[in-house]
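User: Last request for today: this protein with zinc ion, please.
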Amino acid sequence: MKKLFLFFIIFLIGCVSIPRKPYISLLPSYQELKKFCQENKLDYSFNTLDDIIYLKTKGKDIRLLLDSSIVFFNGCFFSLKNAPFYEEGKIYIPLDLKKIISKKLPSLKLEDFSTKTVVIDPGHGGKDPGAISPWGLREKDINLKVAKLLKKELEKKGFLVYLTRDKDKFLSLKERVKFAKEKEADLFISIHANFNRNRYIRGVEIYYLSPYFSQKLKPFYLAKKERNNYSLKFWKNLCYRNNSISKEFANCLVEIFKEMGFKVTSKRAKFYVLKYGYVPAILVEIGYLSNYYEERLLRSARYQRQVARAISLAVSLLNDQYEKLAQK
Ligand SMILES: [Zn+2]
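Assistant: Here's the final one, the structure of the complex with zinc ion:
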């Protein structure tokens, strides 16, 4: 009898179906592309080859990239809070685009937007060896080797590249960030190698700044630090931009590493070099010195070249994407 009762209860629960809404409708900051264009009297087209969404009307030429918060509007770059995305055959547009179209937010304009100047930061150095593998390999040496290879790769592609250190020299985190600011870097890439007590853990890890920290706390910090030389709004926009480009860069790099057969993950973090830079920044942990297999790889020139190539490919892909957006 008890069993029958239990069966009846389970049957009842099974009958109560919870209505499921697609999660997209739960995002108030988005609107479906067709609807957005109808409401704003825009014509649209979508280029599936390079993921560019064109929105046009008299006197307005708007171009968006799928999964990117960078917008090209009437010859200038702007930054959105969210990125347009594709889901089940439909494209969704972030609603803050309206503010840009109606020119209510001119401060979101990105002056001289580019990703051509890159600062590479080989972690540790001098008195700070970083992690040391059980077999004696020092992190600071590997970081520098890969950073130099990456510099070469990027220079071949026409980027202007600076290294925070090009020899075995100690640099404080503050000095590294200051260097990036002085060089007016468009991208800051910090290179590190990982270590864990658990020797089985391995893989590449890519870190970008946590959006919460970037959007809620960093503008206040920067405004205070710079003695309010610019408005808080200016810093907020700068942080939005840096955060979205860092994230796009991290995503792009994950895809490339995956395609090249690497075990890779991306994570949000609050590392100093990500937090206090004024530019889009990522930190790449290129492998585990504590893992026997990966330590061997980190020693090999071939692996170092592969890592440098993957990162340089991500930089040039990101740059190409933004350049395509601005093409006539
Ligand atoms: Zn490190």
